[in-house]
Amino acid sequence: MARIKGPKQKIARRYGEPLFGFSKALERKKYAPGQHGRTRRQKLSDFGIQLMEKQKAKYTYGILERQFRRIFFEAARRKGSTGDNLMQLLESRLDNTCFRMGFSTTRRGARQLVNHKHVRVNGQVVNIPSYLLKPGDRVEVRERSKSLEIVNHSMKSSNPKRYSWIEVDRTQLSGKFLHYPERADIPENIQERLIVELYSR
Known about the structure:
Helix 3 packs across helix 9 (192-199), helix 4 crosses helix 5 and helix 6 packs across helix 7. A hairpin with a 4-residue loop joins strand 4 and strand 5 (174-177). A five-stranded antiparallel sheet has the order 2-1-3-5-4, covered by helices on one side. The longest helix has 16 residues, at 46-61. It is built from nine helices and five strands, in the order αααααααβββαββα. It folds into two domains: 8-87 and 189-199, Ribosomal protein S4/S9, N-terminal domain (Ribosomal Protein S4 Delta 41, Chain A, domain 1); 93-179, Structural Genomics Hypothetical 15.5 Kd Protein In mrcA-pckA Intergenic Region, Chain A, CATH 3.10.290. The relative contact order is 0.14. By secondary structure, the chain is α+β, with helices and mostly antiparallel strands.
């Protein structure tokens, strides 16, 4: 299974944002990692800024380069704003939707739930985290998986956040992907315009 490896909190500190979820390390060390992290004042070129924004999006959604590139070109193929389409496709991934529904406290945990066949879409088991949901698709935790400690802990510990494009039944551990989200409703701090400019070079 392709996945992002390495020290995740160092990556988060490099970008100055909790890309992998809340971290005490990021709160304590609000500077870049490494020997010169406190004093480094690096001036980035336009290309460097665009590249960092793409990397930030990849780390946030847990996607590697080849898959991200495929999603981008699918977004460019669709009608409308390429940047908005890109964010909508990223949000419609099955692992991300499971995370938004509260089945896991992190996207990485949601990805593992999907990989281990604990999730069904429209009544069928789907173990592909990158599966793109369509409006009207129903997502649920399998009946025999509802007793999993990781799922119950997540549902009890996480503050239920409401998103306009999904509805969730927390008692039944199920939900519905209602429609593609508007960009203004997506809470991620990503400037997709810079990513579009990068791929347009």
